[in-house]
Input
Amino acid sequence: MAGTSQTAHWSSRWTFIMAAVGSAVGLGNIWKFPYEAGQGGGGAFVLIYLFFVFVIGTPVLVAELSLGRRGQKSPIGSMAKIAKEEGRSPLWSLIGWSGVLGAVIVLSFYSVIGGWTLSYMFDAFAGTFSGMDAAAAGAHFGGLLTNEYAVIGWHAAFMGLTMFIVARGVEGGLEKAVTYLMPALFALLIGLAIYSSIAGDLAATVDFLFKPDFSKLTFDVMLQALGQSFFSLSLALGSIMTYGAYMTRDVNIGKSAVIIASADTGVAIMAGMMIFPIVFAYGLVPGQGPGLIFATLPIAFGQMSGGAFIGGAFFFLLVVAAITSSISLLEPSVSYITEKTGANRRKVALMIGGFIFTMGILSGLSQGDNPVADISIFGRSILDAKDFLTNNIMMPIGGMFSAIFVGWFVSRKNMMEELAMEDGTFRIWYFLVRFICPVAIGAVFVSIIYNTVTG
Ligand code: PHE
Output
C-alpha cells in the first residue's frame, strides 16, 4: 500500500487479505482468547464465540469493509460522506468517532501487552525459561509486572515500532514482511499445538474446550464472547473501515471477509490447543486471567529441547502479529487527523503515538505493585477497565450501529452494487445485518441490564 494519502491502495488482493488478517490476528487470538475461554468456563464460551464470529461478526465485517471502500476516507470522513450521500443525519459519523476513539483506548493497553511479549521474546532467546516449573514461571511474570521501568520501557519499544511503521506508511517492508511472517506464525502455532497435545494433557483440553457446560453460560460470558468476537475481527474500532478504504474495487468483499474470519478463528483455536494442555498438565488455573500465556508457555519452552530457540521464535512471531494489529489501531486516528489538517503523516503518527504511549503508562503501572495498581474503577484495574469499556460496551454498540446503518439507512441498491455478491449470498447477508445482528446484540445488552437491575 502506498500509505501516504487517503487514496492510496493495496497493491493486490493478496496484500489486502494479508493486511486484514494481520490486523485481525494478534494478541486477541493468542493472549486474550485463551484466557477469556478459561474464565468463561471453556466449551460454552467457545461455542457461543464461534456463533458470534460467523453469524454476527462476519456480516459486520462485510458492512465495515464496504463502508470504508465506498467512503475512501478515514472512518469519520467515510461515515459522514456516506450519510450525506444517502440523505441521512450527519450524526451517523458518530460510528466513525467511536471507532477512532476506541482504537486509541485499545492501543493504550494493547501496546503494554505488546511490551510484555517483546520482553518475553528476549527472555526466551536468552534461555531464561530453561527448566522452569509452574511456580518459577509465575514468579517470572510477577517480576516483570512489578518492575515498572521494564514495563514502561518495553511498552515504549512496542509503541515506538508501531509509530515507526505507521509514520512510514505501510507499504514496502511491512506488506512484504507480513506475507512471509503470518504464514510462519501459523506453521509454528500448529507445531506448538501438536507439541503441547503430546507433552501435555490433551484429553482434559478437549473436554474443556469442546464439551460445552451450559451452566457456565451466563449473560456476562455471552457479552464477553460477543465483545471478543468483535475485538478479534478488529471490528468497530475503525481499523477495518480504514483498511477497506485502501481496497480496490475489484476485490470481493464477501469472500475476503470469510477468509479473514476463518483464519482468525483458526488461530484462536490453535492458541487454545497450545495453551490448555500445559495448563492442565501442570495443574494451573485456566481462569487466572490476562497472565495465562505468560505463566504457561515458559514452562513448555523450558522443558522442550531447543526450547530457547522455539520459544524465542514463537514470541518473535507473536510480536509481529501484535504489531500488524497495533498499526491498524493507530491508523484510524492518523488517517483522520491527516485528512482533517493536511499535516504531514510522520508528524501526526509521532504525535498521536506519543499521546497514546503516555496514556498507556497508567495501564502498564496498573498491573504492578504501586499506588496506580490500587486504583479501582468499578472493581477493575485501569487496564481491565479500558478493556471492559471497549470490548464489552463500545465495540458491540459500534458494531450494532454499523449493521443498522447499512441494513436500514443505506439504499439496498447501493449496497448490492458495492458488494457485487451473488443474489442468494446477498440476501442472507442482508437478512443478518438487518435483523439478526441488531437483535442479537441488543438482546445480550438488554438481558444484562435486566439482570443487573433485578440483581
Ligand atoms: N484484532 C486484533 C487482535 O486480535 C486487535 C484489534 C482490535 C486490532 C481492533 C484492530 C482493531 O489482536
In short: The pocket of phenylalanine is lined by residues 23-24, 26-29, 106, 231-232, 234, 237, 239, 325, 328-329 (CB under 6 Å).
